[in-house]
Amino acid sequence: MTIAVLLSSSANSCPSSEFAHQCLLHYPNNEDHQFVFISDKEDVAIKANSIKNIRTFFTLKNKWNKFFLTRVELNRIIKKNNIDILIHCGNILLSHATVRQVVCFNQVGTFEKNQLKQLDLQTEQIWVHNNYDAEILKKQLPEKRISVITFGAPEEIKPLSWTEREAFQKKLTGGDEYFLLHAEKISAQELMIVLKAFSAFKKWNRTSMKLLLYVSVKSKKIAVDLIKNYLYAKELLLIEDDSIEAEIEMLGSAYAVVFPSESEYPTGKMMHALSMEVPLLLPHHPYLESMFEASAGFYKNDIDGLSSKLSLLYKDEVYKNQLIANGASKVAASSWKSVAHTFITAISNAV
After folding, report:
1. pLDDT over 70 (residue 144)
2. Any bridge partners for residue 153, and if so which?
3. What pTM was computed for the model?
């Protein structure tokens, strides 16, 4: 059986694409199936006997590229490689594929009614990553086969030692602890909430704690504008680094990591935090709560909600240690190898 896996974009920018990519990386040699891995990025190719990599130069980022890919290019690949079933990842719906389809995606709440109808008509199965999405789909599409396959945790990412943490903190902040804010796609309003919450935290707690903002080119411009007259500007650090190694080291040395956006969920990076035994703070949202449950600290997404959670984490060592322990338990039960096995089993059931 030949199975094509289509990524919606780079495996690093779409949770479901990252999910499929990791599953094939951790379960590359499968005797029952031959895989065709289709992506517009060369750096996500997987070297394995059972996997053929096809790079397409047509993406789903604009309507003309999407039109050509879904109506011409994809069907050409399917016919040439004798594809039996197509798995497409991310919030994309392909109505012109000539084979059976399985969809793997997240954030069902972003779908419109016409998209759900198309999903019902065009797909054999639907895979999601948490029970919240599954319950929404079961109500909307009661006859459809829906499976929950959760994200995995990378076995190669381990907590830093105290010596490593202290060395990195000394290099970065002069030895002070810091909260890490993932602000690569943050809006001005979301960043304003974080800055005011950090101000309240500093006011309530006499501490040298810093706030480190991990930014992109776009969000750096937003941050620079907002912190010009910020009272605690000297307690902030803006970091812009594309190095994965630097990002992992920065994450592993943090007192806690905050993902403030209610619309962007870099699930892989959130799992990295749990793997490195760094407390994970997330805004209240059914999607996130269903996925992380007791392994993350959830806060009301306003100034008081975040500042209170930061203070609780700073003052209550028992609470902090419980979050770390819960995260470690989730990681232990979610290795990518076990998730990949579930992924392959689901494929077999779909055939």
Report:
1. yes
2. 335
3. 0.85
